[in-house]
Design goal:
By secondary structure, the chain is an alpha+beta fold. The chain has helices at 6-18, 110-122, 136-146, 158-163, and strands at 47-53, 56-67, 70-71, 77-79, 82-93, 96-102. The longest helix is centred in the first third of the chain and has 13 residues, at 6-18.
Length: 171
């Protein structure tokens, strides 16, 4: 049996993985296709992204009095109070998962992506060339557009595409 060369193995693995995810899916959310890994009640042929916001945990340290001070009537201290330091962690905000519908890969045509680039250029969020490719600069501009609306993702949400007037709003 012939050993597989490392670069060939890496190419095979990356090629297999790239068939599972749309462009830009490596950062900003989980993508599902055809009802796999989607929120409950999702349409069978819809595509979804998931944003996971980590929990915020705060470490709280405070002093607990174990024994009060012994004080005489004239105010002199016989024995100072004894304290113990306690530290605990409190969850300030729990972890949150937010599902959002995205455009499926087959819907992200070069013409639509070019329209996205033009719409983001008009909003002064994209400064690249209108190439029709969902490249790094386009994904970064998508993130800048969606972030003020509470979605920190470079996957174009269906809601954002509708807001930009690029996808028809269903009745």
């Amino acid at each position: 049996m012939t050993p597989i060369r490392p670069f060939l193995l890496a190419a095979l693995l990356l090629g297999g993985l790239s068939a599972c995810t749309p462009p830009g899916a490596n950062s900003g959310g989980t993508v599902s296709r055809g009802g796999q890994q989607a929120p409950p009640g999702a349409a069978p042929d819809s595509c979804w992204g998931k944003q996971t916001t980590p929990a915020i945990i705060e470490t709280v340290t405070h002093q607990v009095m174990l024994q009060p001070a012994e004080v005489l009537a004239d105010g002199s201290v016989l024995q100072p109070a004894i304290f113990k330091t306690e530290t605990r962690q409190d969850i300030v905000r729990p972890r949150q998962e937010t599902w959002y519908e995205i455009l499926c890969t087959q819907d992200l045509t070069p013409e639509l992506i070019a329209s996205v680039q033009r719409a983001l250029t008009a909003r002064d969020l994209y400064h690249g060339t209108i190439s029709g490719e969902m490249d790094r600069a386009t994904r970064a501009a998508v993130r800048r557009y969606q972030k003020p609306q509470g979605l920190n993702s470079n996957l174009l949400s269906l809601a954002a595409a509708r807001q930009m007037g690029l996808v028809a709003i269903e009745d």
